[in-house]
Amino acid sequence: MKKNWVIIALVLIIIWGFGLRIYQLDEQSYWIDEGFTLNAVLETLEKGYPVLDSGVSYSRELLNTYLISGSVALFGFNPWAARIISVLFGTGFILLMYFFVKELFKSQKLALITSFLISISYWEVAWSRQARMYILLQFFFFASLYLFWLLLDKYSHKRLALLFLSTIAACLCHKFGLLLLIIYLFIGLLRFVNPLEKKKILEARRSMTMKFIQKYKWLIFIGLIFVIPIVGIEFYKVFLTSYFENGSGISDNFTTFLYLRGLVQFCFIPIGFTLLGLFWYIYKEKGIFSVFFLFSSYVIPFIIIIRTTNLFHLRYLVFIYPILLVFSSYFVYQILKVASRKKYLFVIIIILLLIGVGSISDFVYMPQITYALEYRTPQPNFSEAYRAIYDSGWNSKTDLIVSGFTPINRIYLDDAGIWL
Fold it and tell me: Which is nearest to 374 in space by CA: 297, 317, 309?
């Protein structure tokens, strides 16, 4: 029993996380961004590729679009079928993070705490119930980070192939997947010039890398000929053009301010615990490369996103949010280790932590039907509004609807109408 307690605890955490994510999944109305995805799904089912009526290709979330299209083809066009993909990947992410954190910090208990916080995180649960790409991006982003970390530890063709596939999958979910390449370039260079590393280890690492490059030089050369132009062009289109359009003026700086203020407003507790966890780790642990790897995987995307977009949407940062939960978990883990020296103190700390987690909006214990998303995310009750339109005697042949939400019109009325 003692040997299996970790497996039992992990299974219970995953089951509870799944229950929170799937509970009455079809009750909450679609919101406007789900309408964009589902219009692409309808076109994919009809034409095989998401080319909208306007002639524009909706290619920003291809993998998500095709997976939802498959689900809709199997289960019909309804909210449950549209959202179940996010539920499954959101639940799978709980397990993925257990293995990732366990590998990073060599601690089953810390990995369990992280999985638990992810399973009940309000933002993780809420976004795992949306027919959008953010949870898929998160899953493949962290799968790629995990495989890259394994590859740093020990090279194998299998790990390299899986790393390549997971990185491509992240990019097919959202262009933010390209940020993985910046992270890997930064970490790779650091491995060569790390001033904290022993000289012999650095020399051995460089020698091994040079042998690998020499062995596969033509394959690497051919790959770079194709990869560098494609990645360079995409990165320029996605990030740099918006930065140059904004410049470094007031609007750009104000958007950055909104992101920083929004994080403090909506993630105050995780950010506070993250800082405490970071300081504790640096003070207590000898090797800091693992925490630096994880910290860089948050900071690099964070800085690039808030400085290259003129839109304030905290959902753009959802895919890296679990890193805050990892560092928060480390702080909680250390508190529990200190308290475990005295049983009564340990019990008191556990009770206080559970009360604290249950009393703040960052976490959710019990299943909910509706989840309010971030500020500036329009979530009117479209299903009720369109039901009222139907009940009033709507006839698509004789009636015309003028609306600012034509994608939603098509979903509920099978008629886009006229855009206002």
Answer: 317
Write down the H helix ranges in 23-156. Answer: 32-47, 62-75, 79-105, 108-120, 122-127, 134-153
Beta bridge partners of 52: none
pLDDT above 80 (res 217): no
**Angle at Cα 62 formed by Cα 409 and Cα 294, nearest 5°?**
115
Residue 418's DSSP bridge partners are 402
Name 75's Cβ contacts closer than 8 Å, sequence gap at least 6.
Answer: 81, 84
Instruction: Name which of 244, 247, 245, 375 is nearest 312 in CA terms.
Output: 375
Backbone φ and ψ for 57, nearest 5 degrees, come out as -85, 125
321-345 confidence digits (pLDDT tens) = 999 999 999 988 888 887 777 776 6
pTM here is 0.86
The token pair that represents 175 in the structure block: 């262009």
CA dihedral 36, 42, 44, 50 (to 10 degrees): -30
| Sign of the four-CA dihedral 147, 150, 152, 157 | negative
How confident is the model over 357-391, as pLDDT tens digits? 665 778 898 999 999 988 777 788 888 888 888 88
